[in-house]
Amino acid sequence: MKTGHLLLGISLALGVFVQPGLAKPADGGESKTDQTSTKKKATTGKPANLPEPKVCWKKTWTFDSLEFLDYFDISCPKNIKVINNHLVLKMTEDCTNPGLTYKNAIHYGKATAEMTMANGGGSVTSMVIDFEFVGKDLTSVQSTYYVNGKPTKDTDKGPERHHSPGGDDVNLSKTFETYTIDYSCDRVYFQVGGKTQRKAIKGEVDKYPAKALDWSIDIWNGGKEYFDWAGKTKWGEGERTAVIRKLEYAAYC
Ligand SMILES: *[C@@H]1O[C@H](CO)[C@@H](O)[C@H](O)[C@H]1NC(C)=O
């Protein structure tokens, strides 16, 4: 198989939906809301002056055991393997959506994955609040967020692209990188390699996601309905694997 022909698709998607009835106020002591709602300040440029949320619980998963199965539901188990302390997800024609979904509801918190994205046109690796790696483009990851299942005014111009801090040409299907979605009641930060590359700050954006849904990491076939974006899926042209070496979730109080 010719890897040279492969395109890389990974979408790291964090689906954030507003469900006002369910919106859960932070139960921690800090009150952060005043800061954000009143200010209409630079969304770009300087970091907003928000206090760091307090972490109540944190868990790291590495793949030296099957302990992660206690915490994550698996789709396409036949295409998910632990190999040398890495979790390998493989998309095949008969199993197009291998992935992990965290069993508990996630609220405000910081979800991090160290991974490589799957190669191949049509493959979309995704970490849901939205980071997407698309098969036509091996060197960038795209961020999006949704409110009530729809892109907002801030996102309907399309996802934003980000590169590894290591350089615009770092091949994200080959090089492990750390992707973080850091979501509090005030703001969402999208980070690549620990650097914030995008923010949505409550009070500054059109609509702010009040609730995160699942935390999942998977590969899906974008080559059917979304081929303009993801590329066509040509089965048989090499392996479509995403590899995860570490996951972490820090829940905010
Ligand atoms: C990225 O790496 C893959 C192998 O993992 C290779 O098939 C692909 O051609 C590389 N692409 C670029 C743009 O370097």
From TrEMBL:
Q: Where are the transmembrane segments?
A: none
Output one GO BP term: carbohydrate metabolic process
**Which keywords, in A-to-Z order, does the entry hold?**
Signal
The stretch of residues making up the signal peptide is 1-23
Domain of life, source organism: Eukaryota
User: One short Pfam family name for this protein?
Assistant: Glyco_hydro_16
Gene Ontology MF terms: hydrolase activity, hydrolyzing O-glycosyl compounds
Looking at the record, the residues that make up the GH16 domain are: 59-238
Q: What is the protein's name according to its record? A: GH16 domain-containing protein
Q: Which organism is it from?
A: Dispira parvispora
